[in-house]
Amino acid sequence: MNLSVNPNDKTPIYRQLYEQIASEVLSGALAPYTPLPPIRTVSKELGVSMITVRNAWEMLERDGYLVTRAGSGCFVAPINETHRQTKVDERLSAAVDALVSDAKSLGVDRDALLAMIEERY
After folding, report:
1. How far is the C-alpha of 106 from the C-alpha of 121, rounded, in Å?
2. Distance CA 121, CA 112 (A)
3. What is the per-residue pLDDT for 83?
4. Mean pLDDT of 48-69
5. Is the pLDDT of residue 1 over 90?
6. Are 102 and 121 within 8 A, CB to CB?
7. Which of 30, 70, 91, 117 lies 20 to 30 Å from 108 when distance is taken between CA atoms?
């Protein structure tokens, strides 16, 4: 797993970590039962607080991406296909809503926006 953070990004660091790991779980890049590195290790490697990493791990566990085994660490949780698809749909819907909102506020019409998406996809 190759995590990175951008301290200049407006997104909080714990959220950056959350999004990276959640994306890898949803895409299948992180298989079920894959161990995550210890919080202390991630904290040192990224130069961020252990509390920041712990917050990300706790959110990931709360949302069903990770499971914690006492004394063994955190592991990728198995996710059934229905749950995975629901999570993918939720994330894409939020991104599309933000994109459409930005396009409207900038005066970009629907056809131009769709053309831009098609070009980049």
Report:
1. 21
2. 14
3. 86
4. 96
5. no
6. no
7. 91
Coil/strand/helix, residue 30: coil
Helix (H) or strand (E) holding 68: strand 66-69
Angle between helices 50-62 and 13-27 (to 10 degrees): 40
- The half-sphere exposure of 58 on its side-chain side, counting CA atoms within 13 A, is 7
Instruction: Flag whether the pTM goes above 0.70.
Output: yes
Local structure of residue 75 (DSSP, 8 states): E
| Tokens 């698809």 found at | 85
Structure tokens at 10: 């407006």
CA–CA gap between residue 90 and residue 16 (Å, rounded): 17
The H or E element containing residue 23 is helix 13-27
